Amino acid sequence: MPKLIFPEQFDTQIEPDIKLGYRTTGTGKTWYARIYWRNGEKNSYYTLKTPYEPSQASFRLASTAARKKYKEFYETVKTGASPTTTLTLASMSQRYLKQIRKEAELNEAATDKQQLPRYKDNRNGFWTIKKVKFRERLHEQIEPFFGSRWGANITTVDQRYLGTFLAWALENTEWAPSTINYHITEIKQIWLWAFRKGYVDQQIGEITRAAQDLRGRSRRHLKEDEWDQMIDWAAKRYRDRKASGTKDTESIDLAYQYWMWLHVIGYTGVRPPFGQVKKNLLEWKSYELLEEGTAQEMRTFKRFDEKGKKDYEAVIMPECWDVFDLMEQHRKQNDLEPTYLFQHTQNKANSWKKGDPVLNFRTSWRTMLKELGLEMPKGTPQHEKLVPYCLRGYFITMRLRDGDMRIEDLSEATGTSPEVVREIYYEFSTRKTYKKLTSGSHNARTITRQRDANGYAII
Questions:
Q1: Hey, which CATH number is domain 224-428, 1.10.260.40, 1.10.443.10, 3.40.50.1220, 1.10.287.3510?
Q2: What pTM does this model have?
Q3: What is the pLDDT of residues 249-277, one digit of tens each?
């Protein structure tokens, strides 16, 4: 590397720990800063990306750039770290996740040897790979909130900005309050880890959390006639595309699969995947057919670690059995592997390959709502809109109304809590449940008593 030259016409020692100079390369002369640290015992060189000119104006530009560089440099070395240590928020996130993953691996290795796990998580338990994967997903999902700040020094992200997370999540996601609060907890964990490592001077304060107003946040319920309209619309779109003579067979297949997708979600109650997390997509390995062809035939669909929640086994209603048979036939006819329930049947340059999963049907859903007159104006609160999640709500509501089910049993079969089912989906009506409420009455006591001349009962 060319020698650093300190021009004599300038006082290049602009600060006790900063000295300016320039180097000559094939592209010309460029200002550099020599920055000292550890009481002058060590120093590092940094290009200031400012062309060198023998003028006071050029020197002032270089001085300003050097002081800015020194500020970033000092934020790193004051923690005791090397000046090459990256203190970006992204780096803190990655290093925190790397540490807890290592601890989870050691815990599981100990468990395999029938030893007690050693490393505790932040919820009075012990780290496992499953728990770490859940945290990794949370970190992926909070990155869009930080935007360019994700690549900035963690010390430059202030508390006031962190306080806007709740408003951002309510505006840009469909997360439940508990999910929002999981993300907030994880943001705080990043800062707590950085604080314990000495990369930040203090922990962050409280971030406003989402209130658990279950009834108030309940989504718009899908009505029975709206469900019928959706099924008819999807079937008609498929028929129209098939009859159009189009050479785009993929569009025909997607219309067919959308019609099937409506049935699958509406008759199982599983959470419709958004496509952001590939492991949450519906897969054939989750489908189970028992006692086929007998009076005891059952069909179920298992969901594993969905949204980081408990595993559950969903029931497939008999109304959807034929649809699953049709999906299997469609898969075989298109020479697709038994991986994802919904797959692309053709290659599309720069988009997908045959066999890739269909991540979601968001566009079809929006088009359907618009053409059925069910689309809500822009700015309508999220809980007043019809979203794919309402298909799950429709299943739960119908099971409560028509299935004569215990709320506790239904919550187990849909991977949620009895509290959520009771508060969001259960619509009690004394008139609708009159026969159930009066069942078990004693006929011997159901009598019409004699009256005296004044109409009073003779008892």
A1: 1.10.443.10
A2: 0.55
A3: 999 999 999 999 999 999 999 988 877 67
